[in-house]
Amino acid sequence: MNKFECDLIADLLPIYMDKKCCDDTRKFVEDHIKSCDECREMYDAMAREIPTVESSQKKKKLRLSPVSKMALVVLAYWAFVVVALIIYAYIMINGVML
Ligand SMILES: [Zn+2]
């Protein structure tokens, strides 16, 4: 298989997998995959990867929301503590200076 076509397929595969390419492109990719072992392997690898990537992203999102809420609470708490300390230090310094 010629290198140029394989490079082209490598570029086109992501949009082919997302079904965002036009019919001619889809046909070109499918014809090439049928006749080129390397690109068919690449296609198979991507076809295997895509569902796992999507499901792991969904899992991450579901896990992240309570975690990020916790992080926000902790962050708000620390912001409060830091502000309180700054105010306390300000009063102390001014108290000493006055
Ligand atoms: Zn190829």
Summarize the structure in short.
The chain has helices at 3-17, 23-35, 37-97. The model has no long low-confidence stretch (mean pLDDT 85).
Structure description:
91% of the residues lie in helices and 0% in strands. By secondary structure, it is mainly alpha-helical. It has one domain. α1 packs across α3 (37-97) and α2 (23-35) crosses α3. The longest helix has 61 residues, at 37-97. 4% of the residues are buried. The model has no long low-confidence stretch (mean pLDDT 85). Zinc ion is lined by residues 1, 5-6, 9, 32, 36, 38-39. Residues 1, 5-6, 9, 32, 36, 38-39 line the site of zinc ion.
Rounded mean pLDDT score: 85
Our estimate of the beta-strand percent is under 5%
Q: How far is it from the N-terminal to the C-terminal residue, by CA?
A: 85 Å
Number of domains: 1
Q: Low-confidence parts lasting 5 or more residues at pLDDT below 50?
A: none
Class from helix and strand fractions: mainly alpha
Q: What is the H/E order?
A: HHH
The share of residues in helices is over 70%
Shape: rod-shaped
Heterogens: zinc ion
What is the count of helical runs? 3
How many whole angstroms does the radius of gyration measure? 28 Å
